[in-house]
Design a protein that fits this description.
Layout lengths: L7 H4 L10 E3 L10 E3 H13 L4 E7 L4 H18 L5 H8 L16 E8 L15 H4 L12 H16 L3 E2 L6 E3 L3 H7 L12
Antiparallel strand pairs: 1-2, 3-4, 4-6, 5-6
Helix pairs in contact: 3-4
Length: 203
């Protein structure tokens, strides 16, 4: 069963923040020069080195300020409300968390997550089944990592991405094939760690 970020077990995870700084990722990992925690940056570089020749990681986003996270929550919640008139707040909270994490536990706000895909030597994105940030509604559920309705090539590329990142200790959020994190509360629950390493970052 998929554990969503709205699950009370996530918010119950203790945070013992190691006070590690945010650092800019190497430009080779993406033109946006995303910020992430230092250890995550190191692990991403190792994952990059493990990819076959001609394939590269492309990090689209890393650290996300709290106000931007809240704006995404509000926008997606409004879309769900419009599609499901009369929906109750508890169900809305759960459905929203398929695509965007509640603010208190959001891995991006902790600098502990990246949205990442694969590209070739010319910077062209490989087929991974959907665009990054495709909602469950937009993609017909194909945004889920384990979705069946994707091509064989997309499945192979998702598996490759997972293989190099999971070897470095990152975990995937199963409703978003592109989202991987390290050191946050979701990671702690998924790996059995005693506590999360990173809490929210204020900038």
């Amino acid at each position: 069963m998929t554990i969503l970020l709205s699950d009370p077990r996530i918010s119950a995870v203790e945070v013992r923040d190691v006070d590690e700084p945010l650092v800019a990722l190497d430009p080779g990992l993406g033109p946006g020069i995303a910020l992430v925690r230092r250890e995550l940056a190191t692990r991403l570089q190792s994952a990059q080195a493990a990819l076959p020749s001609g394939i590269h990681l492309l990090v689209v986003e890393g650290y996300r300020p709290a106000h931007r996270q809240q704006a995404i929550i509000e926008r997606y919640s409004a879309e769900i409300r419009a599609a499901r008139p009369g929906i109750g707040e508890p169900e809305l909270h759960v459905l929203t968390s398929r695509f965007v994490a509640p603010l208190a536990v959001a891995p991006h706000v902790a600098g502990a997550a990246v949205d990442v895909t694969l590209v070739d030597d010319r910077g062209r994105e490989l087929d991974l089944g959907t665009a990054i940030d495709a909602t469950p509604e937009e993609s017909g559920g194909r945004c889920y990592f384990a979705a069946n309705e994707i091509s064989r090539e997309a499945r192979a590329n998702r598996d490759l991405l997972a293989r190099v990142l999971c070897r470095e200790g990152l975990v995937n959020y199963p409703t978003e094939w592109w989202h991987y994190s390290y050191g946050d509360r979701y990671w702690a629950l998924a790996t059995g760690a005693e506590a999360a390493l990173y809490g929210p970052v204020s900038r």
